[in-house]
Write a structure and sequence with these properties.
- By secondary structure, this protein is mainly alpha-helical.
- It has a domain of 80 residues.
- The protein contains three helices and no strands.
Length: 172
């Protein structure tokens, strides 16, 4: 049994080897030659100049990237230094808003107490005028406080990240 299997394997291998070489011989004997189109010299020259420009741009990009890293470090330091001023400004502005809201709420409560129950129309008009006057004085106080507070501290602007140059495409 082993001998027959061995003979079968040898016969199959020999036949595959002999049949595999026939197509290659046929290809070699055919005399069809295909000529490639000559390369466009202008396209090659343009590609070479584009490669040279790309190398120059990459050197500039690497320098710009190093500068960007230094600018980002300075930007982060500036942000950290301005954070306390921003926090103080926000707290002062919040306090001004809370004071305004409490004065308007107090005026509203006084108005609602004055018009509660059966009250004459003249008393309602007087209470409304008092409420409007209190509200106007609260608005004026808030405006004066915001003016004295001044403008908010200005955050530093983030540096612009450099863009990587695009690689030139090889002509076909």
């Amino acid at each position: 049994m082993k001998k027959t299997k061995l003979l079968t394997v040898v016969a199959l291998t020999a036949s595959l080897i002999s049949f595999g070489s026939i197509p290659t011989m046929a290809e070699e004997s055919s005399s069809t030659t295909t000529t490639l189109a000559p390369r466009d010299k202008a396209a090659i020259a343009a590609f070479r100049s584009a490669v040279t420009q790309f190398k120059t741009d990459m050197a500039a990009y690497k320098t710009a990237r190093a500068d960007y890293a230094a600018q980002m470090t300075a930007y982060r330091a500036a942000l950290e230094s301005i954070k306390p001023a921003l926090t103080t400004y926000a707290a002062a502005r919040k306090q001004i808003g809370q004071t305004f809201a409490s004065s308007v709420q107090a005026a509203r409560t006084a108005y609602q107490a004055a018009v509660a129950g059966t009250v004459s129309d003249e008393a309602k008009l007087a209470a409304k005028a008092t409420f409007d006057q209190a509200k106007a004085s609260a608005v004026a106080a808030r405006t004066a406080a915001l003016t004295s507070l001044g403008a908010a501290p200005v955050k530093p602007t983030a540096p612009v990240k450099p863009t990587r140059p695009t690689k030139p495409v090889r002509p076909q």
